[in-house]
Amino acid sequence: MNCADRFSSNADDFDIYLTEQTFSESALKAFCQNPVIKRQFGNVRITVGQNDYDTYRYINHGVSDLALVKNNVVSAFGASEIYGYEEVASHQDYAAYFIALKEKPVLSKEYLLGKRIGILDYPSSRSGHIVPKKILKTLDLNPNNVELHYYSSHKEMRRALLSGEVDIISSYWDKNDGEILSRTYITPLENSVKGMRWYLKMQTRNTDLKCAVQNVIQAISAAQNKKYYQQVELKEPCVNANAQ
Q1: What residues are paired with 86 via a beta bridge?
Q2: For residue 58, what pLDDT band results from cuts at 50, 70 and 90?
Q3: In which region does residue 65 sit, left (phi positive, over 0), alpha (psi from -120 to 50) or beta (all else)?
Q4: Would you say residue 42 has pLDDT above 90?
Q5: pLDDT, tens digit, for every residue of 109-127?
Q6: CB under 8 Å to 5, separation ≥6 — which residues?
Q7: Which domain holds residue 159?
């Protein structure tokens, strides 16, 4: 996704990588209208990653100027040290759960034997992939005695649970889940999973850009439909008259 027209003959584009589709349109509109972005870049380009391979390409190779990803991804690739990625904002940490439709899941080998469990098809996702697989390994369970069903998103997992495709899913508890699921039927797996982080490539002391980015992140987060993304904490927020 790009701005409709280039701002100038400047060949340097502001490259944004997102792992959350819901931010794409509002982010494009806000960054395309931002005066600091217009001064420093020729256009804005937004890419929405579909899998871990996309994230690897954009973060490990330092392609993106701004990225919304998990902190373990940036740490694993050493992207902060190599490319100067600096955390400028973060969304809340959360807990990971086994969620069922009609009963409370039990963390025992006997209970989980033969269960159909929905997880995310993203090896880097803690709540949807890493944590549930670690729990199953701890309980000495493997693909021979449980059925693992892989899905592309947390939304798809919820659809599968409601339709009866799976017995349990591994996910976070969203405030909107109370409308379709019962909080009685969730079992904690891990109480503190790191939330999504915004990283800005700061290889130079471009404080105007940092302030502009934080202003845009705060505005587009407040307008999100998903309650989780509405709350955002700015990291060392700056005040700069030039970063409108």
Answers
A1: 200
A2: confident
A3: alpha
A4: yes
A5: 999 999 999 999 888 788 8
A6: none
A7: 94-193
Number of DSSP helices (H) and strands (E) in the chain, helices first = 10, 11
Helices (DSSP H) in 122-153: which residue ranges? Answer: 131-138
Judge whether 45 lies within some domain.
yes
Cα–Cα distance, 233 to 196 (Å, whole number):
11
Does 183 lie in the same domain as 152? yes
CATH of the domain at 82: 3.40.190.180
Stretch 83-110: mean pLDDT = 93
Number of domains in the chain: 2
- Mean pLDDT of the region 180-201: 92
How many Cβ atoms are within 10 Å of 179's Cβ, its own excluded?
7
Distance CA 116, CA 106 (A): 14
Same domain, 150 and 187: yes
Q: What is the CATH number of the domain that holds 135?
A: 3.40.190.10
DSSP per-residue letters across 2-42: B-SS-SSS---EEEEEES-GGGHHHHHHHHHH-HHHHHH-S
Task: Examine residue 83 and state whether it is found in any structural domain, yes or no.
Answer: yes
75 and 113 fall within a common domain = no
The two tokens of residue 203 are 């290889």
Closest by CA to 69, choosing from 23, 31, 17, 27, is 17
Residue 102 to residue 108: CA distance in whole angstroms: 18
The candidate with the shortest Cα–Cα distance to 132, out of 174, 179, 193, is 193
Burial (Cβ within 10 Å: 0-12, 13-18, ≥19) of residue 143: exposed
Longest dimension (CA), the chain: 65
